């Protein structure tokens, strides 16, 4: 693809190509080591095309963050919507939450490095926290709806519970990517999410217990 072809392609395609190139470059070389020139070269666009979409690397990362978050939430919501009523057990819901996509390792590398950057930079931390809050709100909403289908409700604050789920997932992935044979991705969620959900929820008033599965807590 010729460099500078932005005039012949929709703006959305330009943005998508830059995001794809940035994710690959960040995962391969690191957030700080990746230059805007490298991203442009990988995507096949000029710096002018880049700056017409993003003010800098931080803004580009946050766009990647929102895109990844939306895709993850949509995928989980679709999987839950596809469940038959008798499949809505805590064990089955935990299994869906434990699913790790093959490309998750690249995103984990990128987001971990940016999180470390944000810890050192108060302004970056403030901005990242705003995006984190939006993701947590979606997770909290999804968990509430998911449990509603299972005939249960949280007994703890939904936002705090979402924080715990994120900590379990990210902490588990850190160990899994270091020791993939000893701890395959998703193992901790599959093992500990069902009892965690059982301990943090109760039957909803008027809900009929789901007796069709092997999950005795519903």
Write down the secondary-structure element order. HHHHHHHEHHE
What is the count of β-strands? 2
- Apparent shape: elongated
Beta-strand content: under 5%
Mean pLDDT: 87
Q: Approximately how much helix is present in the residues?
A: 55-70%
Structure characterization notes:
This protein has 218 residues and is mostly helical. It is 66% helix and 3% strand. The protein has helices at 11-29, 36-43, 47-51, 57-81, 90-97, 104-120, 122-149, 158-178, 187-199, and strands spanning 152-154, 201-203. The protein is built from nine helices and two strands; from the N terminus they run H-H-H-H-H-H-H-E-H-H-E. The protein has a two-stranded antiparallel sheet with strand order 1-2. Mean pLDDT is 87; it is low at 1-8 and 211-218. InterPro entries: Homeodomain-like_sf, HTH-type_TetR-like_transc_reg, HTH_TetR, Tet_transcr_reg_TetR-rel_C_sf. This is TetR-family regulatory protein. Pfam families: TetR_N. Residues 209-218 have a biased composition (Polar residues).
């Amino acid at each position: 693809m010729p460099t500078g072809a932005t005039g012949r392609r929709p703006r959305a395609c330009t943005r998508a190509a830059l995001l794809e190139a940035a994710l690959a470059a960040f995962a391969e070389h690191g957030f700080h080591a990746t230059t805007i020139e490298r991203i442009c070269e990988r995507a096949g666009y000029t710096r002018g095309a880049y700056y017409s979409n993003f003010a800098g690397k931080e803004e580009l990362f946050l766009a990647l963050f929102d895109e990844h978050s939306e895709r993850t939430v949509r995928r989980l919501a679709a999987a839950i919507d596809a469940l038959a009523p008798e499949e809505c057990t805590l064990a089955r819901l935990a299994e869906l939450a434990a699913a790790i996509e093959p490309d998750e390792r690249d995103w984990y590398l990128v987001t971990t490095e940016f999180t470390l950057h944000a810890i050192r930079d108060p302004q970056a931390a403030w901005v990242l926290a705003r995006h984190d809050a939006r993701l947590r709100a979606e997770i909290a909403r999804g968990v509430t709806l998911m449990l509603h289908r299972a005939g249960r409700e949280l007994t703890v604050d939904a936002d705090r519970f979402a924080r715990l789920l994120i900590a379990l997932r990210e902490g588990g992935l850190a160990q899994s990517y270091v020791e993939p044979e000893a701890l395959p991705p998703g193992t901790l969620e599959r093992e500990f999410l069902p009892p965690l959900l059982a301990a943090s929820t109760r039957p909803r008033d008027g809900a009929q217990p789901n007796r069709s599965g092997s999950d005795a807590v519903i």
